[in-house]
Amino acid sequence: MKKMHLLLVLLWLALPVLTFAQSKKDQAAAKEVEALERQRFEAQVKKDYTVLEKVFADDLVYTHSNGKQNNKQEYIQSIRDGKSQYDKIDVEALNVRAYNDGKAAVVNGTITITLPNKPDGSPNLAYLKYVVVQVKNPKKGWQVVLWQSQKQPEAKS
Q: Distances from the Cα of 78 to the Cαs of 54, 90, 119, 128, in angstroms?
C-alpha cells in the first residue's frame, strides 16, 4: 500500500513536467503550421501547383465562403481554370492550436483576398474568417484536411 501511495505521489509530482513537455511539442508544431499557412497562401496566389499538391491532403474537404465544396483535385483544378483567382492574400489574424503531441492543428484567422478587378475596374476584395484543420502525415508532412470560410462585411478603415 505504501508503494502504491508513493507511486501516486511521484506521478502527481511528474505530471506538470509531462504536461510542459507536451506543450513544447505543441508549441513547436503551432509555429511550424503558422509558417506553412502563410506559404500555402503564397502558393495559391502564385499558382504553385507543386506546393499545393503537397500541402493539401488527398481527402481534403474545401468549403468556399459561398458554401460550394471541393475535394483536392477539384479545388486545384479551379485555380488552373481561373475559377479561383487570387491576386493577393493578406493575413490579418492567425491563431494556431496544436494537439496530440504536435500531430494535429486547428487554425482560425481572418484574411483579405484581393481578387481580379470588377468589370468597372474597381477593386474586388473579399474579407474572410476561416478555419483549417491540418494533420501531420509521417511521409508527407503537414497537410490541410479541412478548409471552411465565411465572408465578412467590408473592413472599416
A: 17, 21, 20, 19
**DSSP β-ladder status, 56-63 and 141-151:** parallel
Specify which residues 62 forms β-bridges with: 70, 147
Phi and psi torsions of 83, nearest 5°: -75, -30
**In the chain, how many H helices and how many E strands?**
3, 6
| Domain coordinates in residue numbering, the chain | 2-151
Longest CA–CA separation in the chain, Å: 82
Which CATH code for domain 2-151? 3.10.450.50
Tens of pLDDT, residues 124-153:
999 999 999 999 999 999 999 999 999 998
Q: Report pTM.
A: 0.81
Give dist(CA 71, CA 146) in Å, integer: 10
Residues 11, 48: Cα–Cα separation, whole Å: 49
